[in-house]
Design goal:
MFS_trans_sf, mainly alpha, Proton-linked_MCT, globular, transmembrane transporter activity, 454 residues, 2 domains, Growth Hormone, Chain: A, two-stranded antiparallel ribbon, MFS_dom
């Protein structure tokens, strides 16, 4: 009796094994291969470098609001009759919210994706600015619209966002990318300052505010179009990676995770050393220079416009200094870089009282160049050290370290004014902050292990 050879059913599920009877007691096993999954369609405009470029654009769009607040004090005082103290509350709320948002934003990006969080953040910035320009009638509304809404959006697109982009999309050249994104923050904060000042002078503060709101709202759709949460989402590998990197599972409990990361990292020495040095960084930049340089120069007879132009020049040199620092961070021990930056910054601030005169002289220009090169240069090596010591939590940890930066800035912004009232000049402020920079240089060398992954 003949037995027909067994056939494998064509309706079998791909990838399964079917066994059918054959001649006598023989059994023939056939295995169907699962067809290869079609790779995801990669948008032509999504590459590691275009992602970095769009992230830089988002940082610029949000960063411009940081320095615009200083240009609003006079117009708001003249139009509404609010005291400068009441207006300052809104700026203070913005600074605190900005600093406190960063670590939670990094955790939210881990949970919901940086594409979604960044787009929403730009929407918050734009909405807060529009409300400030069109619906504000009381000083408390300035604290709400500008301080809270703009502060939340700006904080979510700060350097913690840059750390997330660098960590996910780059294996090589991380220091360089960090430097470029930090430079974007500087461009947003300072390079546009003369342009914004001109708009405020010619067309009023509302026009400048609405122009920046429009830029933020236009940047949102571009972020949504180009940005991807992870290279695997676009079928790509991180820049410099030898093999594809799988997308990690979403992390639930973003806010709880941010707090847990803080509690866990706060039990380590490197966290407090990095937070301490970065607090001094904030004290010696945002706290003293951006708050007190112009009035200090005015005390020596210098015109306010000349002093503001010098600050804009500092911002321009920030770009070159930050990019160079990122390049150096890829090649040198970040601890030694931080120590050198703080030491030179301290010497420069110590000499500043001797350089301030009624006119802009070459020695003061030299100070501006040196300070500009070093101003934000501390960011790439600080992020690199966070990566060395805290691994996957580096972005969240840097968010908390950046909060310390804002605390240091706020403290010296307040104490500097108190010192000016008490002593009649800012000389003691420059000397005191220079001493803090010397301490930061020493603390930088105490941090363990400084060679970041290239």
């Amino acid at each position: 009796m003949r037995h027909a050879n067994a056939e494998v059913s064509k309706s079998a599920d791909p990838g399964t094994t079917r066994t059918t009877p054959g001649a006598g007691r023989e059994r023939r096993t056939a295995t169907l291969r699962r067809p290869l999954r079609r790779p995801r369609r990669t948008p032509l405009w999504t590459t590691p470098w275009t992602v970095a470029a769009v992230a830089a654009l988002a940082i610029v769009a949000a960063g411009t609001f940081t320095t615009l607040a200083g240009l609003l004090v006079g117009p708001l005082h003249a139009e509404h009759g609010w005291s400068r103290g009441a207006i300052g509350v809104g700026s203070a709320v913005h600074m605190v919210v900005y600093g406190a948002t960063a670590p939670f934003a990094a955790a939210l990006m881990d949970r919901f994706g940086m594409r979604y969080v960044t787009t929403c953040a730009l929407g918050l910035v734009g909405a807060g600015a529009v409300l400030t320009a069109t619906a504000m009638t009381a000083a408390w509304q300035f604290a709400l619209y500008w301080g809270v809404l703009v502060g939340l959006g700006s904080g979510a697109t700060s350097m913690a966002f840059a750390a997330v982009v660098t960590e996910r999309w780059f294996v090589a050249r991380r220091g360089l990318v960090t430097g470029l994104l930090t430079a974007a923050s500087v461009v947003g904060q300072f390079v546009f300052l003369p342009v914004l000042s001109e708009i405020v002078g010619r067309y009023g503060w509302r026009s400048a505010t609405l122009a920046l709101a429009g830029a933020a709202l236009l940047a949102g759709p571009l972020v949504w179009l180009v940005l991807r949460d992870h290279p695997a989402d676009a079928g790509l590998r991180p820049y410099g990676a030898a093999a594809p990197v799988p997308r990690p599972a979403p992390v639930t409990g973003a806010a709880r995770r941010a707090v847990r990361v803080l509690l866990r990292s706060a039990r380590t020495g490197p966290f407090w050393l990095l937070a301490g040095t970065f607090a001094i960084c904030g004290a010696s930049t945002n706290g003293v220079m951006w708050t007190h340089f112009t009035p200090a120069a005015h005390d020596h007879g210098m015109a306010t416009t000349a002093a503001s132009s010098l600050l804009a020049l500092v911002g321009i040199f920030n770009v070159a200094g930050t990019v160079a620092s990122g390049w150096l961070t890829d090649r040198r021990d970040p601890r030694r870089l931080l120590a050198a930056y703080f030491a030179v910054r301290g010497v420069a601030l110590l000499a500043l009282p001797l350089l301030l005169t009624a006119t802009v002289q070459p020695p003061l220009v030299a100070f501006v160049v040196v300070f500009g090169l070093l101003d934000v240069a501390t960011v790439p090596p600080t992020i690199a050290l966070c990566r060395v010591h805290f691994g996957a939590d580096a972005a969240v940890v840097f968010g908390w370290v950046n909060s310390a930066h804002q605390v240091g800035a706020g403290a010296v912004a307040f104490l500097g004014g108190v010192a000016r009232d008490a002593f009649g000049s800012y000389d003691v402020v420059w000397v005191g902050v220079a001493g803090l920079c010397g301490a930061a240089a020493v603390l930088s060398l105490v941090v363990r292990g400084g060679v970041a992954a290239r």
